[in-house]
Amino acid sequence: MSQIVQFFFSGLTLGSIYAVVALGFNLIYSTTGILNFAQGEFLMLGGMTAVTLARFTPIPVAVVGAVVIVTLCGGVLEILFFRRLRRPTVLQMIIITIGLSIVIREVALHVWDEKVRSLSYFTGNECSSVRVLGAGISPQVFWVLGTVALVVLLLHLFLHRSLVGRAMRACASNPEAAMLAGINTGRMRTLAFMLSAGIGALGGCVISPITMTQYDSGAGLAIKGFAAAMLGGLGRPMPGVLGGLLVGLAEAFSVYFGMPAAYKDATAFGILVAVLFVRPQGLFSSGELQAGAQER
Amino acid sequence: MKTLAKCALVLGLAAAMVSCRKKTSEVTGPPVGQPGKPIVIGALFAVTGPASFLGAPEKKTAEMIVDQINAAGGVNGRLIQLIVKDTGGSPEKCISFTRQLIDENKVCAIIGPSTSGETMGIKNICETAKVPLVSCAAAEVIVNPVAKYVFKTPQKDSQAATWIFRTMKTMGIKKIGIVSGNTGFGKAGKNQLEKLAPEMGIEVLASEVYDKRATDLTDVLAKLKAKNVQAVVNWSIVPAQSIVAKNMKQIGLNVPLFQSHGFGNIKYVEQAGEAAEGTLFPGGRLLVVGSLPNGHPQKAVLEAYKTEYEDRYHEAVSTFGGHAYDAINIVVNAIRKAGSDDRDKIRDAIENTKGFVGTGGVFNFSPEDHNGLTLDAFEMLTVKNGKFELYRP
Q1: Model confidence over B250-289: pLDDT tens digits?
Q2: How far is the alpha carbon of A137 from chain B, nearest alpha carbon, in Å?
Q3: Among chain B residues, CA nearest to A98
Q4: ipTM of the complex as predicted
Q5: Which of B2, B208, B239 sits opposite A212 (nearest CB)?
Q6: Pair (B256, B313) in one structural domain
Q7: Per-residue H/E/C for B325-378
């Protein structure tokens, strides 16, 4: 029993990390149709910036500082590389994000170096452990889960209750109609980039004590986050989170059932491929949004 | 169907993104074409990527030594030019850099690569091209079976495993679990451990392999915990070494943790923090030079290297930088003895090296032994108050 709980939490830890990435993916995808492959780099930047700031300030200040800086970075990147494109196709923009991810990685290698760093644990230290039904869990896992839950909740409120959030969703469902209704779609896109950069940075900070941060740790995260987002249905933030948790749990339990841990990734991608064949719109998607995205 | 095609495309792009990394090459020493043609030595180090804890100090060390030798007038009246290629820890890249070093740069010898997987990838290339290779990677398979042109400086993994099992016996440990990374080093170490365990009277209850980029290992360790192991042996070079230590404490697996000689960089200890306390691993004496008795044959060499490195780079020395120190010095001594930069003469001189005092131990090469170190090159080390110390049971 305690072993199953242990595996469950292991999966939840991995899953919530993927969920954070998926959240950023979906946010940008739903407002712009772009798959932002630099999303993992936002997490890396967040983590690295926070580690640097933490040398001078207490951790909470460092985390807030990192989120602010990376949010601004997200906005600047959008304005520099996407705002001025003339009639860009989605594919062009996706390729730009891939280029960006490589550039950001190289810049990070030169700003920092090749070394692995990490923020110190928010509560307790490396050895601290909370007992749940006989399983031991690092308090940091609860920080990650709590942060993801909070971000999901706030994002939901923002997208459904606030005027700006509704405007963003309008861009998602029909950009032309949104433009006719007087919504500045360009500005919405900048906002989407800033929001997902900020969320990514926050995620990068809370997972840093667990996963450690290195200049190239973003790429792997982006791929898993993408799998999670696909699983939940692209463009839908909340199902994307569920998708992330599912991928994480599937990975952990594949080890429980005797898969070699080195092939954990295969589990995640096996599920992804299966979903693409059986339900290309995602597990939890009704299909409407996908249709909207297709028209672009 | 359209969505499917799109997704497939995106997946492909994503894969391209991961594999797309940079290519670097740095040259230390005089530019080619100056009077008195320089002696060109190639170096392959994983300066970036998952094995950067190895490659970065190795590159720094090799450059430092070459600068020192050139400042002192070079070898045989000629300066040395060192061409360092950053492999990023990837065997594929390592192979193409090797070809480039041999065919384009016409190097007389190669030092590195940093990892065992990379070394095994180029062992045959160097053998066929008849270029002496002095590897900085640890797996025994590099020099067993012996290849005429391939040497290595780190202690063998079989020796490390023997030390670990010996220590376990004194502690009364009989049932263990093994976790290892899916790198060349991890695989080779896993094989050695599993082969030697029965001979040493130790039972391996579980042996799990994890991805070299793994960020959380609680699942693998939970499996070991369920089997009630008396100790865990982790065999990898990647930062997962720190994660293992942390995750063990977090899930309450409170048994001794043994690591391979790949743990010899204090940065792993820093990353694991308090969780690294008490970790046991076999290591060279470089890490504990302060506690060596005066008059120990290695003490002077180790102290000099440690001081020079730490003064120049303002970071702590690691075992890995030491492997590069040994490799470059062995090659340069061989060139000096051979009196030329002819590849075959250098090879013969390396094989005849006797009594070279390096950071890894005292090297005595022979046609049968291309590592040149014995079991006593190791000491059992432990972590105490965030520092490496000699383990005294």
Answers
A1: 998 999 999 999 898 888 999 999 999 999 999 989 999 9
A2: 6
A3: B17
A4: 0.83
A5: B239
A6: no
A7: HHHHHHHHHHHHHHCCCCHHHHHHHHHCCCCEECCCCEECCCCCCCCCCCHHHC
